[in-house]
Design a protein that fits this description.
about 425 residues, alpha+beta, Chloramphenicol Acetyltransferase, 5-stranded mixed beta sheet
């Protein structure tokens, strides 16, 4: 490819949706913004691959150049600034804070949850060290002066991918897509209300359930949200579809890469499946994940994605590239495969003693009936996002947890507002 893989999502339209990840970390003590400013920029010494500024290349394509300016930390702005703006020193990231909350904001073009979390961990490690004048025992956190991991900055290329026939091909059963909800969430000012709810679970409860029902953490949240929607969707909708992201870096020799390289798993639930025993539902969900994360399957998806990016490279002119991206984006065309909901699990992160200073952390992006789950210490933190002012979905999700005997703490709703990009123009 002509440019970094981190640039191509910048061609996406943000007229309605934002391509910014926002992580909310609630500390146990009030945040000291002066200490945080120092800690953030100390931590960034390790993550220079995130210290970038967007410029235009000769053919009008987006390019990234080093940005030596400080990372900005703001105190509870009334309106979030744009990424790449002067207000954030033209960075693709910044922080803001209020009370006990620290918010990390970064362009989704730069990375996903897997690539972002090490930076969040290092920053929090340095903040705890600076604020309390201690050296936390946290061997699982990359320190500001530590070397980069092998392949941490390596970019995937099409040559790395398998060129084999996939062992499995997902054939959509045409699950219900929440079109009316999306239309209301995008265009109806009386219904549009992007919010998120925070759920905190005991990790031991989820793991015990998964163990006894042939499941996993990722499968658990897929099947429980499907069960919740089965409670509230009309009977005329015969199929409920779940979707989850998969990071296939290890399959192509890039297990440590920060780049947002993802394939997708689709799981269609016939409504009759919800009459099955819960362990059978777990087996079905987990088996679909195993099949669709096979390297031949994920690499087949990625090869089509790289073909798309190379098509964008052939086009000259920023406006033409933006138009072509919108027209040819395989995630939005006639052949695009969409489910009823999305549920992602980034995995467990080892915070060591730094966890003693953190109450919770949650990740937010744009979406409707979208779950993002993170895990730290003995807790799982799940954000439940939706676009419209309607509590029936989250209430049904709570009912499922109650039915299964899974304890939880729910907070919210909170407004799901995030920054957009202010990009250079021709």
């Amino acid at each position: 490819m002509k440019y970094s893989i981190d640039t191509y999502r910048l061609y996406s339209s943000e007229k309605i949706f934002s391509f910014c990840i926002r992580v909310r970390v609630t500390m146990k003590d009030e945040v000291d913004i002066d200490v945080l400013r120092k800690s953030v920029n100390t931590a960034m010494q390790r993550y220079q691959y995130f210290a970038k500024e967007v410029v235009l290349g000769e053919d009008g394509g987006y390019d990234l150049i080093p940005n030596k300016r400080d990372v900005v930390v703001l105190e509870a702005p009334e309106k979030l600034p744009d990424l790449c703006s002067e207000e954030v020193n033209r960075h693709l990231l910044y922080l803001d804070c209020k009370g006990r909350d620290i918010f990390f904001n970064i362009s989704h073009s730069m990375c996903g949850g897997k690539g972002m979390m090490p930076w969040v961990q290092t920053t929090l490690y340095q903040y705890v060290a600076d604020k309390y004048s201690i050296t936390p025992d946290a061997p699982g956190i990359r320190k500001p002066d530590s070397e980069l991991l092998p392949g941490e900055t390596d970019e995937p290329t099409i040559d790395m991918l398998l060129d084999e026939k996939p062992i499995y091909t997902y054939k959509s059963k045409n699950p219900v897509v929440m079109l009316l909800d999306y239309l209301n969430g995008m265009f109806n000012p009386f219904m549009r209300d992007p919010v998120y709810y925070q759920f905190t679970f005991e990790q031991s409860d989820i793991m015990a359930f998964a163990k006894h029902n042939d499941s996993s953490v990722a499968a658990f949240f897929l099947m429980t949200l499907a069960m919740a929607l089965n409670k509230v969707l009309p009977d005329k909708y015969k199929i409920i579809g779940g979707e989850t992201a998969h990071f296939p870096g290890a399959d192509i020799g890039l297990p440590n890469s920060y780049h947002d390289l993802l394939s997708h798993v689709h799981i269609d639930y016939d409504r009759k499946y919800f009459d099955y025993d819960i362990d059978k539902l777990g087996t079905y969900t987990r088996s679909q994940i195993i099949l669709q994360t096979d390297p031949t399957v994920s690499n087949y998806q990625l090869r089509k994605h790289f073909d798309f990016l190379e098509e964008i490279d052939k086009i000259s002119g920023q406006k033409n590239k933006i138009a072509a991206y919108a027209q040819k984006d395989p995630s939005k065309g006639k052949e695009a495969q969409h489910g009823t909901f999305i549920s992602n699990y980034t995995g467990w992160a080892d915070f060591g003693e730094v966890a003693d200073y953190i109450e919770s952390y949650f990740a937010m992006v744009d979406g409707h009936l979208l779950l993002e789950a993170l895990s730290m210490s003995d807790k799982i933190f799940l954000s439940f996002m939706q676009l419209i002012r309607d509590k029936k979905y989250v209430n049904a999700f709570c009912e499922v947890m109650d039915d299964l005997g899974i304890s939880y703490k729910m907070e919210g709703p909170f407004p799901n507002i995030r920054s957009k990009h202010r990009l250079p123009r021709e």
